[in-house]
Structure formats: C-alpha cells, structure tokens
Amino acid sequence: MFATITIPFPEYLGKGKATHVYLLKDENTVLIDTGLDSKENRTFIKNKLKELNISTIDYILLTHGHIDHFGLANYLQKEFGAEILIHKLDKDKLEDYRNAIKWFDENYELIIEGGYSREELNEIKNKLINVINMIELPESYRIYENLKLNIGRNTITSIHLPGHTPGSVGYSIDDTIFCGDAAIEGSTAIENFRRELDSLQKLKCFNNIYPSHKKIPLTRKDIEKLENHFIDRLEEIIKITKNGMRLKDIVIRIYGDKIYESPIRALIPIRQVISYLLYLEEEGYVIRKGYLWISTKDSL
User: Fold this and answer.
1) Which of 43, 124, 165, 285 is the 20 to 30 Å CA partner of 4?
2) Whole-prediction pTM value?
3) What is the DSSP track for 250-282?
4) Greatest CA span in the chain, whole angstroms?
5) Rounded-to-integer distance, Cα 165 and Cα 191, Å
6) What phi, psi does 142 have (nearest 5°)?
7) Going by DSSP bridges, is the β-strand pair 208-211/19-25 parallel, antiparallel, or unpaired?
8) Of 171, 196, 218, which marks where a domain is finished?
9) Comparing C-alpha atoms, which of 180, 282, 190, 271 is closest to residue 229?
10) What DSSP string describes 26-77?
C-alpha cells in the first residue's frame, strides 16, 4: 500500500507550503518524512493513519533535517514506536536545530557587506531562535551513510541528493523515488548549487519522482524545467551584474523587495542568491570587488 498524506503548514508559523509525507505499507510500515508539528497536525495525522488502519509505524525515514520534514517525528515515535533514520550529514540538525542556520552565521559578514543592516539580520535571527526553541527534537534516531531497508516484498534504497542540505536523500523503490526538497515544481531552496545540479541528474534516472511540496509526482520533463529555471537565474545574474551590484540589490532585482512574515522565508532569497554567486565565482563568471559582484562574461 502506498498513500500520500499532506500535512498543513501551521498557522502559528505564518504562511508556508504544506508537506507531502508518504506512507508505505508492506510487511513493515514506513513513513517518509512527517511534516511540521502542532497540536492540530498531531490530531490530523493521527486521524489519517487511523483511516488507513495504521496502528504501528516501523520506520520514519527523513529525507533531510529540516523542521517541516521531521517536526512530528518525536510525537509519532512515541505514539507508534517508530525508529527514525537520517543521513549522517544531516544528523547535526536533530542534535541542535541551530545547526540548520549555520550558513547564516558563516555568511553573516558577506550579507552585511552586501547591503543588509545588522539590525534587520539580527531581528530575523532572533525570530528564528524563538521558533527553534519551540521545536521538539527526536529523542532517538539512527544515522546511516547508505541505506538498504528490506520491508517485505520491497527494498528501499537511499540515494544521496545533496544541494538543498548536505545530507539530503531520496528513497527509491524500483523506478520511483521520494526526493524530499531536492526538486520541487518551479524551484527549490539551495545551499550548494553545484551539488544540486548533480542531484537533479540523478533524479532524471527515475520515472516517478515524489517531492515533499507542491505538484506530485514530478516527471523527467519537470526536472529539466527546473534545471532550465536555474540556468535562467544564472544568466540573469550575469546580465544584471555587468556594471557591479551589491548582494541586496541582486536579491531585490530577482525576488522583489518583499516583507516576509516568516523569518525562514525572509532568508531563502538571500541564501539562494549567495549559492548562485558562489557557483558563478568558482566558474569564473563573476568576481567580487569589495561589496560589489561584477560579471566577467556576457553569458554562460
């Protein structure tokens, strides 16, 4: 049995995307990701599992260590006795979720030089810390590097898909893969652009691609559209930085000068543009002079 359960985005966190979690029932019962935690979501998923006649969950497989993917894991582990598994490169986020925003601290001065004020960045970070302090982390979990999990007639195999996070994975059965946030219709948040491109190549080997948000399933054509979207973004950055541009101005030019209710959503455009710029810098398409990013070529 295979079922999709779409977990709502809790109101207390502002606006955001619902999370698709996937139930696989064989001799063992597996849940891929869990969605965000809230009182309402605990009731919601418990009722859904009851409708599906699920009384135990043997394994919770996490595609990566972001809160919208493991938020309900501790609750479900206590209620259904599940063992939680996560790739070793994302385990740090289950140890202390402040590790999920390490990149923010690592790029803090770069972001300041790029035109953002310390006041606005510290306000975003304080909001993030407030959310982090409310998170209920799993009490126990198992880490792995390469997973082959026999659940009866089927075997689930992990496929490493870094880019969104270092330890992002997909879980495959035959020509189907559950890919987390490695690919989402239209776009996806990126931490490392080069690794993301490599991961998209891996996804194109599958006929059925189930992401954690928006349209399901995706096809190879959807993955190619996503690749083209990223290439268009790179071309856009090369074009607009011909005469030099600050990070903040690049972000505004591409994403607009929006005020985000959610601190996470406020940071995603900044991180996205940084990932593009660092890739272009590595490839020799842009250089950094002081606080300006300047393109050195007309196109890719």
Assistant:
1) 165
2) 0.95
3) HHHHHH-S---SSHHHHHHHHHHHHHHHHHHHH
4) 62
5) 6
6) -115, 135
7) unpaired
8) 218
9) 190
10) SSSEEEE------HHHHHHHHHHHHHTT-----EEE-SSS-HHHHTTHHHHH
Q: What is the pLDDT of residue 259?
A: 60
| Domain shared by 91 and 147, yes or no | yes
- Residue of 16, 17, 22 lying closest to 214 (CA atoms): 17
Mean per-residue pLDDT, 182-195:
95
What pLDDT score was predicted for residue 264? 72
Beta pairing class for 59-61 and 83-87: parallel
Tens digits of residue pLDDT in 244-280: 999 999 999 999 887 666 667 788 899 999 999 999 9
The backbone torsions φ and ψ at residue 227, rounded to the nearest 5 degrees and listed phi first, read: -60, -45
Helix (H) or strand (E) holding 234, with range, is helix 220-240
Span 87-114, average pLDDT: 94
Which of 17 and 69 is assigned the larger pLDDT?
69
d(CA 56, CA 54): 6
Q: How far apart are CA 45 and CA 174, in angstroms?
A: 27
Residue 12: pLDDT band by 50, 70, 90 thresholds?
Answer: confident
37 domain residue, yes or no: yes
DSSP state of 163: T
- Token pair belonging to 271: 């991180």
Q: Report the pLDDT value the prediction gives residue 260, as an integer from 0 to 100.
A: 63
- CA-CA-CA-CA torsion for 137, 213, 3, 91, nearest 10 degrees? -30
**Domain limits for position 283:** 97-136+231-300
